[in-house]
Amino acid sequence: MEEGLLIHNSVFKDSRGTFAPLPLKFDESNLSVLRKDWVQSNISVNPNKFTFRGLHFQVGEFAQSKLVKVITGKIIDFIVDIRPNSPNYLKTYEFVVEPNNELFVPKGFAHGFITTEDNTVVQYLVDNDYSPLKEGSIFWADFNLVKQTVERVIEDNELTISTKDLVTNNFNV
After folding, report:
1. Main-chain dihedrals φ then ψ at residue 120, nearest 5 degrees
2. Interior CA angle at 120 toward 118 and 123, to 5°?
3. Who contacts 155 (Cβ-Cβ below 8 Å, separation ≥6)?
4. Single pTM value for the model
5. Chain Cα centroid distance, residue 144
6. Would you call 56 a catalytic residue per the annotation?
7. Cα 25 vs. chain centroid, distance in angstroms?
8. Of 8, 111, 124, 130, which one is the catalytic site residue?
9. What does the alpha-carbon distance between residue 123 and residue 22 come to, in Å, rounded to a whole number?
10. Above pLDDT 90, what percent of the chain?
11. What are the E-state strand segments in 11-142?
């Protein structure tokens, strides 16, 4: 897979509320079945809109694929191809992810998102263990698509971002 894949799920509604299965096996354009052995489930709770997380990645034997799902709220998700031998090296992709769909992020991609609603909760599954020694990040504003989208979304509002994501310098674009 050369880029991320946005997956639209069925949501079943009745008087009790909604039920939305999280598929761990799905058909990708009838070409092949993608099945992962997910080893960890992460939950990101973001009380404020305009919260930015990323762009993060793991390298080497700790590279991770992710399945990102919004439980409540809405995000704009960004992935960047950081595979040095890829014809799409440093190409940036943008996806709007809402409840009822997921984004598959392949290994070899940096990942980040900005929340566009208060109280946004994001779950993501990863298929490999985390290693702080193999963790990396890229400064989000080094990518025009990400920078322009973030500036358009936040308008004159304050961006909530960690110090770690503001001072990252372990990946040169």
Report:
1. -85, 130
2. 170
3. none
4. 0.83
5. 17
6. yes
7. 19
8. 124
9. 11
10. 61
11. 12-14, 17-19, 25-28, 32-35, 40-46, 52-58, 66-72, 75-81, 92-97, 101-105, 109-115, 120-126, 135-137
| DSSP assignment letter at 107 | T
Separation of first and last alpha carbons in the chain: 23
pLDDT (0 to 100) of residue 101: 85
16: exposed, middle or buried (C-beta count within 10 Å: 0-12, 13-18, 19+)?
Answer: exposed
Q: Are 108 and 117 in contact (CB under 8 A)?
A: no
Given pLDDT bands bounded at 50, 70 and 90, which one contains residue 155?
A: confident
Buried-exposed string 54-89: b where 16+ CB fall within 10 A, e elsewhere:
bbbbbbeebbbbbbbbbeebbbbbbbbbbeeeeeee
Catalytic residue among 56, 89, 111, 130: 56
pLDDT at 70 over 90: yes
* Both tokens assigned to 87: 């014809």
Domains and CATH numbers, the chain: 36-166 (2.60.120.10)
Residue 150: strand pairing partners: none
User: Which region among 22-31, 52-61, 140-149 has the lowest average model confidence (pLDDT)?
Assistant: 22-31
